[in-house]
Design a protein that fits this description.
By secondary structure, this protein is mainly alpha-helical. The protein is 50% helix and 6% strand. The protein has 6 helices and 2 strands. A two-stranded parallel ribbon has the order 1-2. α1 packs across α2. The longest helix is centred in the C-terminal third of the chain and has 17 residues.
């Protein structure tokens, strides 16, 4: 198992050997991805027979991709390790498996981003005669726009 810790400093080795979940925060270029890749290799080596999945959440797609590349380079089984963003995690492990049980999601859905959401809200506010500046709305107007927004998302099968 120590072979999977080669090339790490003392602090990085300590992180890899910890049994509990960890939150690793550090500046760019400090070795976070390297440490996570080695931790995965260490856990995979230590628990060869385990069916448990190691989950690594990152802030960006780029970091998740880099971690997957490093795991591949270290011959770590990707089938026992999942890397991605919090949004990807929610889609794969929460929304997709249980969407069939929710009437709003069971016939398919599309995820919209914040820009589309903002565009919808501004258009709805303008259609209702409130103007496009959402910050100037009264509470009643905001609630009216929010109701129309929810109805639009349901019609378009969007979340």
């Amino acid at each position: 198992m120590e072979r999977s810790l080669d090339g790490l400093n003392t602090d990085q080795k300590e992180v890899c050997k910890r049994e509990e979940n960890i939150l690793l925060i550090a500046c760019p270029g400090s070795g976070k991805t390297k440490t996570l890749a080695h931790k995965s290799a260490y856990l995979s080596e230590k628990y060869k027979e385990s069916d448990l999945l190691n989950v690594f959440l990152t802030y960006t797609n780029r970091a998740a991709f880099e971690l997957q590349l490093r795991l591949s380079d270290m011959d770590v089984k990707l089938s026992k390790n999942w890397c991605g963003t919090i949004h990807q995690f929610c889609m794969q492990f929460i929304i997709n498996p249980y969407s069939i049980y929710h009437s709003r999601l069971s016939k398919g859905f599309k995820i919209i981003d914040e820009f589309q959401s903002e565009k919808y809200r501004k258009e709805l506010s303008e259609e209702k005669g409130y103007g496009r500046d959402l910050f100037d709305l009264t509470l009643e107007e905001k609630n009216d726009v929010d109701s129309a927004y929810d109805e639009l998302l349901q019609r378009n099968r969007e979340i």
